[in-house]
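notes to self, project folder thing:

trying the whole complex as one job this time. last attempt i did each chain seperately and stitching them together was a nightmare. two parts in total, labels are on each line so i dont mix them up again. if this works i'll redo the older ones the same way
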Amino acid sequence: VPSEVSEREQKVLSIIETARAKRSKFRDTQITMAHGAGGKATQSLIEGLLVPAFANATLEAMADAGTVSVLGGNVAMTTDSFVVNPITFPGGTIGDLAVNGTVNDIAMAGAKPIALTLSLILEEGLPADILKEQVAAIAAAAQSAGVPIVAGDTKVVPRGMCDQMYICTTGLGVLDDRSNLSPSALKPGDKILVSGRIGDHGTAIMLARGEFELDADIKSDTQCLWPMVDKLLDEAGPSLRCLRDATRGGVASVLNELARASRVAMIINEAAVPVHPAVAGAAEILGIDPMHVANEGKLVAIVAPEAAEAALAALRSMPGGEEAAEIGECRTEPEGMVLMATAFGGKRVMDQLVGDPLPRIC
Amino acid sequence: MKYVDEFRDPALGEVLAGEILGLVEPGRHYKFMEVCGGHTHSIYKYGIDDLLPQNVELVHGPGCPVCVIPMGRVDDAIALAHQPDVIFTCFGDMLRVPGSAGTLLDAKAEGADVRMVYSPLDALRIAKANPERPVIFMAIGFETTAPSTALTLKRAKAEGLQNFFCMCNHVTIVPPLRALLDSPDLRLDGFIGPGHVSTVVGVRPFEFIPREYGKPIAVAGFEPLDVLHAIHMILTQIKEGRCEVENQYARVVPWEGNPRALQVMSEVFELRPHFEWRGMGFISQSGLKLSEAYADFDAEITYSVPGIRVADPKACQCGEVLKGVIKPWECKVFGSGCTPERPIGTCMVSSEGACAAYYNYGRFAREREVV
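result (full assembly):
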């Protein structure tokens, strides 16, 4: 009897959703590469081990940057490590990522980045020319972002203990008065925007590794997103609910995190998601969803419906935002879930990434 | 993407869905099995279910290469990966399949050199780049992937490689289908035949299904229009009282298959007397091993593997799912004990597995509107 069956199915599904809405536990016996992929294993590491250990309200907000009150003002702080392999790739280098990645996390808090610190972990035997090249890249990216590097540290480890060089940067920003952003501020009816074609960075890295004998002219999208955020705050400030840069785990991970945090549903229109044809092609061949592929210069903006048009125009007016698009909206039910209206006319769940198809992407 | 987007055209999909609605008898329930995991994946990924009438039910079949691997074989693979100096290569999904004590990914974290490859040729390349180290390729899959393993081994032999080995887990599609059709638990009205396998074996091997079991079958491609078209073909057969093998995927699948691929396979492989399938037990003449001429490349001969049969975890009902007897969500541990991030059974690991496809893509009650 079909109706009875679907009732049972409903029950199973609701049990699953209840379980998923709970904070995930960290139950693994050892760290695997999946813990670094930005998907569900990363989430269990963060929510199950780190956040409870350092329990405080700022961290628990789970934003890209934490905000702290200092002498009556509010500042945003964040930190990020970079282990990308290879260290240079079409469109950028590890140095570019180290600056832009951290600056972008500050910008996503609605804060103007004002300073960076830089830690270098270098492998014994690293050619000085490679180091000089990366230092120049860091300097250029910092200058272009208008953010000075005000302190730093260097460590060297024996050959084989790291792969050429790892970089850690910490960023400081001043919270902008125009912004009032929070991952839990989303409301049904809000529009979901992306600032351009998705999946370029991850695809560029994958192709640069030369493991797949695929060739395509794809460049990393690494760029500083503060100018875009600045413009968004100008045009849609009070109506902006939340901003996220869609790095590891891609747009899908960002949307799932926000849907859970705000207890809303999301419906994404697959046909509206901008994807470079070569990225779509590579993803098709490798069986990866571009929505799971990392970006380094794309943001997801959730905006109140009345400001969506202005926000979209603001994004499109900025370099790197020309192909910004509205890709979906927030709904009420099913709470905490992201659904995709497929281009073919069906519907499906769009979940977070599981496992690690592409290690060391940033 | 040219030659792909054409088969994802929503307008044509709507037309086909309309015709399908016209073909079904209102009071009758139709149950079709898609044999291949690739179809299962497409059905959920594109939401093809949404375009079908309520009384057309799709059940998922045994054609998912990762899903059918029993636990004991995973243990054997892990044992091989831990051999001194070995570089163990396999497809990505295999990394996360649990053996009786952990996965290949765990073995990697414990120090085994386990690498993900996208093709057996990648493994061969690794072997050439590391001549001082043994490189083992864990071969899995139906007749679809067996020829590429065979060609890789032929190349390894021609080039005189001494350090390349294959752990062969290739299987054939017809024996499990027979086992399924012989089992009394399942009432089916027809089959969506496996497109990729058929590019190699052709359509002829499926003629026994209508002839001996009286079920119609349409061999189908993997794009959403292909799947809808195949359902349309089967329903038309039923309506017209026909029962035969039809080839929806004629743009790729020749009736006689690919004789060269079959030739290479017969050179490199021979049938095992029997092979264990996850949850389905031993099925006669359903698995391939390396032939006498390629015995030097056989990892199971060069290295001793435990070869211990391990019972599937008690709670796991992968066998029932693979046979289409239960739906993924009807398994006792679905979504609670067994999730894609912490799978118990194989069907929750592979993207072609029915449980993973349903969990990742289909997991919301369709009656429940998005509001």
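what i see at first glance: Chain A touches chain B through 49 residues (CB under 8 Å).
need to look closer tmrw
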